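Slide 14.
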Amino acid sequence: MSGAAQPAGRAGLGERLLDALDRWVPKPAAWAFALRIWLAMMLALYTAFWLQLDSASSAAVCVAILAQPKRGQALSKAGYRFLGTVIGGIVGILLIALFGQDRVLLLVSFACWLGACVFIAQFLQDTRAYGAMLSGYTVAIIAVAHIDAPQTVFDAAIGRVAAIAVGIVAITFINDALASPSTWRSLLPRLAAAHAAAKAFARESLTQGDPGPERTAALVRQVAPMRADASAIAGELDDGVHRAAGARSAIAALYVLAAASRALAAALDRIPEPGPRVREAHALALRAVLDGADASPQTLARDGERLRDLVDAGMCEANASLDEIMALQRALDVTNAATFAEDGVRALGDGHEPLRDIALPTHRDFQVAVRAALRVMIAFGLAAGLFILLGLPQSSFALVQVAATCSLSSVTPDPRKFAQGVLIGMPLAALCAGFILFVMLNGNQGFPLLAIAMVPPVAFGCLLSLNPPTFTIGFITLVFTPVLLAPENPQSYDPQTFLMNGLLVVVAAVILFLTIRLVLPISASQHRAFALEEARRDLAEALVGEGGDATTRTSLNADRLFQFSAWNSGSGAVRRASLHHAFAVAQLEAAAARAHAQLRPLSELSGLIPLVTRAREALASARSADLDRAARALIGEARAQDRTVRMQLARAATDLATASHVIRRHGRFFRRLSLPSS
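Slide 15: predicted structure.
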């Protein structure tokens, strides 16, 4: 027995050792990524030396900042980096021209420009936000760094733009030459998995009832992060525009599929004995979310047309109930969402032009954006005052690092975690640069030796950046190692300057850490309060017919719910209640926006103007009884209209009734939001 147990124990120990090695040893793809970044950095640096650029190190730093594992991510970031650099260079030259003789005014004007860029970046998405933020601290690199020699600013701006262009060309060439993984290939299996999860969610809704807000929030959390990759696909291939549009269409459809399946389940619950039309509509909607041949494009198109016939037949029937029309329309919504999702996933895979091209807006809070801008301005102002009082010779270098790190933190999902990573990464970057400069090179000149010496820190930074918990540490190490090393031809070896620069970047990291912690901090409860206030404003706009189309609002609300679920805290009961209320606001806003979208063309028909006016007034007042009467009045008018108008009336009546049910169910909560007559 013991002899048998011993080999098993040894096997168990060996398996645990293999598991540990598998967890800690980077995969071949990670090493390939590190190799590509090292080659691109060396190519950029060598080209900058050959062109005799004054800021040759900026080319290597550019490659480090653009270090992305997927080709589309790097291309998208590169484009906005170049644009942000050009804008920042122009503004830097302009500020020096206006305030070159007055340092105080120059620093104040730069702080205002930096705050404005950070504020704008809060309302943009992904790499566009990075480009806006970059145009802010680029002014520091060009103008503030040359505050003692304003006559050199123009040459510095031209040199930096040239270095950035060299870095972009280098990383693009290496990514293409070494077949960097495409973003769409990595997104396709994730989107397919989310599509399968959404269809399973819909099947559960239609067979077992509403899964609830918690399950819906989990599905949203699976879908929402793919939006960033969807926006980075367009520049990868000739058909990248179609693939990106397909990905966006599928993501939006998955949001709608979850909401429509829950709405259909709720409508079916209100019908004690469904008639033949409702039963057939339910079966068709269920078939639309099945796997296999039943979900083929041809079947979905045929079932969608059949559901339109059922909705039209229901609208033509004299005694059709509002709940029956709602069930028929929601079944059609499920099938339409399944059609767009299926088409979008296929478009991502084969590059055909999808059925639609829509935007995926993100939720941003005005209060959060203002605080982020003020935080950066205050941090830069306090740092400028401190360094001026200390009279350090490298004060301008330190101010550039403060501006850069504070700006970068403003566009990250969690500024606190980013500040912690910077606090660890800056000393590591200083150690790496010092090791290269005074141990590996040790006074020698020559590019081959420099390239070999750069291998360990580049590999270290790349591997750390691929792991989400250590991403910031790896990113800061990768970027600031060449910043502190400052490769030149010939290379300078001044230990005093290096030690001072290393100390100043660590001080900049400490300033960032303290700023994030102490200056206008935002707690999770404040995030929820800000999001709720923005949702209340958007809801008020939707009730009166303003603020955008329903598809855009659905995506915006999904992103808001995604962020809200991350900020949601407290006991289980409190979290569930908060999610219920958040979903109620989103459902009412989407219903109001869709209803107004249908009422606008109906208002052009003279015979429907009084009914449309009453429906709009009911939405604006948020009275559930008036909404129900308006919905029934629209259904009663349907028999006198043609098929196209009947379909619009069905959609409008369904959304009016949906708004009524939501208001009736969550009346106390909506009264707290100060909605009229809720």
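Speaker note: The chain has 28 helices and no strands.
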